[in-house]
Write a structure and sequence with these properties.
Largest sheet: 6 strands, mixed
Order of helices and strands: EHHEEEEEHHH
Number of domains: 1
Number of helices: 5
CATH architecture: 3-Layer(aba) Sandwich
Strand content: 15-25%
Distance between the termini: 21 Å
Radius of gyration: 14 Å
CATH class: Alpha Beta
Length: 154
């Protein structure tokens, strides 16, 4: 699964203004509502329920909040870069400044897990994260996130 299958250019927020985890999830829910046509409160509630199971702050300034929704027909991603890192209850206790939200249909099963793995692999790359942190233009961020993966040489 490639990033361009998950992320639309309109799903990239270059400077998300949020001072808390809750506010970031609210802002992202608003963005997701615009992309999916679903009500932002429903999206926000799904994200909060997932956070109650355990933080989606995976460390190194990165969070991948996610959830499944019966109303969705396909996977949707939203990427946000925060100009000022926020507390996110991350596993390494470091503040978060890169957030990739993933919403999936209830029936997504393996596709949801593959998408999470793809996002995680991309954001584990220190070079990619440095470039994302250095870009403040939505088009540049989108280009960095959707560069097709190249298989390693045999």
């Amino acid at each position: 699964m490639e990033m361009f299958e998950l992320l639309a250019q309109s799903g990239v927020v270059a400077n998300l203004k949020a001072s808390s985890k809750k506010q970031a999830l609210q802002e992202l829910s608003q963005q997701a509502a615009a992309l999916t046509g679903l009500h932002e409160r429903v999206i926000f509630d799904v994200l909060l329920q997932r956070e109650k199971l355990g933080t989606t702050g995976i460390g190194r300034g990165i969070a991948i909040p996610h959830g499944k929704m019966q109303e969705l027909e396909r996977l949707h991603g939203i990427f946000a870069r925060l100009p000022k890192p926020i507390e996110f209850d991350a596993i390494d206790e470091q503040p978060v400044d890169l957030i990739f939200l993933l919403l999936a249909p209830e029936s997504a099963g393996a596709d949801h897990l593959k998408a999470l793995a793809r996002i995680s692999r991309l954001l584990r790359d220190d070079n990619v994260c440095a470039k994302l942190r250095g870009a403040d233009d939505p088009e540049a961020l989108f280009a960095l996130l959707t560069v097709p993966t190249v298989a390693p040489a045999a």
